[in-house]
Amino acid sequence: MPRLTSLTISPYFDIIVVGSGAAGLYAALCLPAHLRVALLTKDTINMGASNYAQGGIAAAIDSEDYPLLHLEDTLKAGVGLCDRQSVQFMVENAGAAIAHLVEMGVAFDRKGQKLAMTLESAHSRPRVLHSADTTGRAIIDTLATKVLEQANIQVICQAVALNLWLTPQKDRVQGISILYQGKIQWLKSSVVVLATGGGGQIFAQTTNPEVSTGDGVAIAWRAGAVLRDLEFFQFHPTALTKAGAPRFLISEAVRGEGAHLIDVRGNRFAFEYHPVGELAPRDVVSRAIFHHLHKTAAEPTHAHVYLDLRTIDSERIPYRFPNIINVCREWGIDVFQEPIPVAPAAHYWMGGIACDLMSKTSICGLYAIGETASTGVHGANRLASNSLLECLVFASQLSHIKIQPNLVAPDSEILQVNSNWNREMEKIESIRQMLPSLMWESAGISRQRDLLDGALHQVNSWREDLASLNIVQFLDKILPNQMIELNSTDAEQQLRITAETLNLLDLGYLILKSAAWRTESRGGHYRSDYPQTSEDWSVHTLVQSDRLWKFSEYCSEN
Ligand code: FAD
Ligand code: SIN
């Protein structure tokens, strides 16, 4: 895939889309072709969680399946917090989204002439379309190729979005600031679409790529947007756990195809925690592993769990899971001879920027799509393979967008900055290192009041420490229409690390506060001090600035 960069960028676009995952790319393609679109991304065009997606994309399009069944499975997984109308919209539009992908050339696996479907946990039918175990890559390669062919879309890689530009009344968006090629500049537009993906990097153990630092949610929060359900994070049960290796995902489809989850003794312990064993909902399986590891921790050689693929037809494995075989082999594991050591890792953020069916946020002109958004389709726990589907269905809503014409970008004042932030970076980098471990220990798979409060206190103290640093004050004080030229590539890198760390700290504060507030267990949010689901908490948590409140209007019954 070509890595596009551009030296000069127009200061004005009809629409700015931030993020080049499934949501951002598909939105850019669905926008009316007469609009001038900027597609910003902070890495290469194909880098993001979408490209990592393995299992597939859910769609009730088989002759023996129905959108209504997909809706029911989704509502059940969401444990009472899905917005029924949004789910219905998603499942009913799944067929059109898949047809469009196939038409554009996405090569899903087939069984004869028909699209092949697999089963994943908590789905009542096999309805997950896939392209071996690299479904995300197949989708992203196709979408990115199409985007690069579109004359109206300017793709701007290695551009980090920093902050929204609001009108003086702070009631609508008029652009965004970016860090790009040694400069900080403001791009003007009456519509900004945040498609910046999830925030798994806030946890020490995550399947998410490095770009998943939750920037969009933090940017929207600072601008005053309403956020929703930030305490709900999904922990995937089976990430590779091997010294030195990243937490590479071992797809749920592997269990769907018949792999067993076992402990050191070969015992299929998941049945001790749920009647359907390893095919129980993700939060249940993750907690089963978490508890089993704790139970066996007294004997360190026993405190491991594994996924055993040898129960799957050995001729089927290379066809279904070629990438998993290869990555495991790179880390010295032969899946045909031995089980894979696995453990849970932070995977998907159900919470995000609150949006309606048209992907509109609470700020005029600001839209959010994909994992960064909270459309209401996932509730307290996302059903497997519903995320790619959500990205496409809600991104396509932008085809209906209306633009306010005649925005003119005023001239910029150019300022040169001689940065000298080296000493301050030590502090920032050490917080960037410590925060994910703190979050994993306090707001990971099992949470409790004292740990949440202690972590919140620590995060607030780090936020205060950073607020006094010159580099942070510099970032805070950049005014719209100032173009800042930096004196070195080091300065650009330092600003990027600082911006991401500030975002992660803001999100840490918000996740901890929301998790401490919700005194029950539901879906991805498990409180060991409140282990039951409570009817009183069949409500969303809404957040705006420092205010938290409960909201029940959009809750579904399941
Ligand atoms: P992403 O694909 O993460 O894209 C975010 C984009 O925003 C990136 O281009 C990034 O560079 C850019 N960005 C971020 N911050 C900034 C900034 N400040 N400035 C500029 N650009 C920025 N879901 C499924 O439905 N099926 C699956 O099989 C599946 N498997 C998965 C496997 C793994 C390992 C992971 C991690 C997730 C998986 N998921 C799956 C979840 C799903 O992949 C993601 O939720 C979904 O792809 C998110 O898409 P997105 O477009 O919202 O974000
Ligand atoms: C997986 O392949 O297990 C991930 C699927 C998903 O996150 O939806």
Descriptive account of the structure:
The chain is 34% helix and 19% strand. The chain is α/β, with parallel strands linked by helices and 558 residues long. The chain folds into 3 domains: 15-232 and 348-400, 3-Layer(bba) Sandwich (FAD/NAD(P)-binding domain); 236-345, Flavocytochrome C3, Chain A, domain 1, CATH 3.90.700.10; 413-529, Up-down Bundle (Methane Monooxygenase Hydroxylase, Chain G, domain 1), CATH 1.20.58. The strands form 6 sheets. The protein has a 5-stranded parallel beta sheet, with helices on one face. The protein has a 5-stranded mixed beta sheet with strand order 9-10-11-22-21. Helix 1 (22-30) runs parallel beside helix 12. The two termini are 43 Å apart. Bound molecules: flavin-adenine dinucleotide and succinic acid. The site of flavin-adenine dinucleotide has 46 residues, from helix 1, strand 2, helix 2, helix 6 and strand 9.
What topology does this entry show?
Elements: E1 15-18, H1 22-30, E2 37-41, H2 49-52, E3 57-58, H3 67-77, H4 84-92, H5 94-104, E4 110-111, E5 114-115, E6 117-118, E7 128-129, H6 135-149, E8 153-157, E9 160-166, E10 173-180, E11 183-188, E12 191-194, H7 215-222, E13 227-228, E14 233-240, H8 252-256, E15 260-263, H9 282-295, E16 305-308, H10 316-320, H11 322-330, E17 340-349, E18 352-354, E19 366-368, E20 373-374, H12 386-395, E21 413-417, H13 422-443, H14 449-467, H15 470-476, E22 482-486, H16 489-517, E23 540-544, E24 547-551
Parallel strand pairs: 1-2, 1-12, 2-8, 12-19, 18-20, 21-22
Antiparallel strand pairs: 3-7, 4-5, 6-7, 9-10, 10-11, 11-22, 13-18, 13-23, 14-17, 15-16, 16-17, 23-24
Helix pairs in contact: 1-6, 1-12, 3-4, 7-16, 13-14, 13-16, 14-16
Bound molecules: flavin-adenine dinucleotide and succinic acid (SIN).
Flavin-adenine dinucleotide (FAD) is lined by residues 18-24, 40-43, 47-50, 52-57, 135-136, 159-161, 195-198, 207-208, 211-212, 215, 249, 347-348, 370-372, 385-388, 391.
